[in-house]
Amino acid sequence: MIELTGNSLTLEQTKQVCYEGDIVTISLDSMQKVVESRKAVEKIVADKRTVYGINTGFGKFSDVMIEEDDVNVLQVNLIRSHACGVGEPFPEVVSRAMILLRLNALLKGFSGVRPIIVERLLELLNLQIHPVIPQQGSLGASGDLAPLSHLALVLMGEGQVYYAGKVWPTAEVYKMEGLESISLQAKEGLALINGTQAMTAMGVVNWIEAVDLAYQSEWIAALTLEGLEGIIDAFHPFIHEARGYQQQIAVAERFRKLLAGSKLITKQGEKRVQDAYSLRCIPQVHGASWQALDYVKEKLEIEINAATDNPLIFDAGETVISGGNFHGQPIAIAMDFMKIAVAEFASISERRIERLVNPQLNDLPPFLSAQPGLQSGAMIMQYVAASLVSENKTLAHPASVDSIPSSANQEDHVSMGTIAARHAYSIIQNVRRVLAIECICALQAVQYRGIDKMAPQTKTFYEKAREIVPSIIEDRVFSEDIERMTKWLKKNNWQWRALISEISLNKSLGY
Prior knowledge:
The chain is mainly alpha-helical. It has 18 helices and nine strands. One of its GO terms (cellular component) is cytoplasm.
């Protein structure tokens, strides 16, 4: 059970709620803040004070005054007019994350919504009713207006939701669960959509999946090192401590643990003096990507506890300030950074695949084929990996450097952060398939070398992976193998992080 306060949500807790379905509760203190904030809005309306978004229009219409009798209609019109997202819906897990993050932001007590709003978001989470939210249409400033409007529609009993494995009209699900639609009141529509929760929710899911991929890349690269009889000296701690990057040091240490006891890896000078960069520089390349992931984590953990709507209400309503916390630039840059970092896992992986299949670069059967010439083996798998890596290069172009003015130039600089987050997700899916291809090729290579010579840890991984993709004894439709391996990696049913500490480093390596 996860208790929300508006200030203390972690990425690990977000993962528990979004992936494991943990029940969510609200702290009493945070609910009291919501109550006090709402009283401030009601007083503003009663006193007929002019405050943006409460009794004015939005964006370029901020100078248009709204009559007191129309302030509630204003909020409904806002949601319906802004719910114009297009394209395929976000993955359901992202929709769930959006509800969680929007709820957590409202609990800070700066937004002026009624308790019924936060209670309904809580019900949606715990009943696992998730809005169907189109992915495209957000500029990432003035918040994720279009995506979050589709979320807000659901509170009004409109739109569509995921429920019990199907897509339903919201009204039907409300009837099944005995829920009433909510009539939005002053400030509430704006409070629901003025925020960065679409890009941040997508970013959280990206980070969770990217971290799993980063660990998986190490296990798979360790197999490749054995399949190519790689030189372990490049992972010696002295080298990495001499440079000083902690992530690089940690990657090298994990590889030494993974390969402890292997009779397939070599020492420098035994078979060659040094390996190609795609083997020798794994700690440096992977370590740099880990640095970026650590940066992204830091930004996400700030943003999931941030107040990002506008205006914000302070001092029991005495101070109401219009600002720009809805601007997604911090997350936009973080997502662009993530795109580059994660794409590199595939870029270097594809080069290792080439070394596994190219007969000019190893002494294995050409293209790992059972009958070279008659059978093509893994030849075209490398083509696929190269295609995915090339596609990633286009997706990695930074979205955050672009801006198109909107709302008649009132909103004249935007972040495009949601585009960055969506493209990061696409890159992650491509990287997983490239790693799946490397895994299939590495499994075949170590089989040729001798499974009995593998390190205990990599041998255990080999045996589990072989349950997913059998040995290549003749050509077959390898697309099916790639997709099976990809799904296995996606499910994360291997304990990637659980390096068996009881297995000591092989003393014969001189460490």
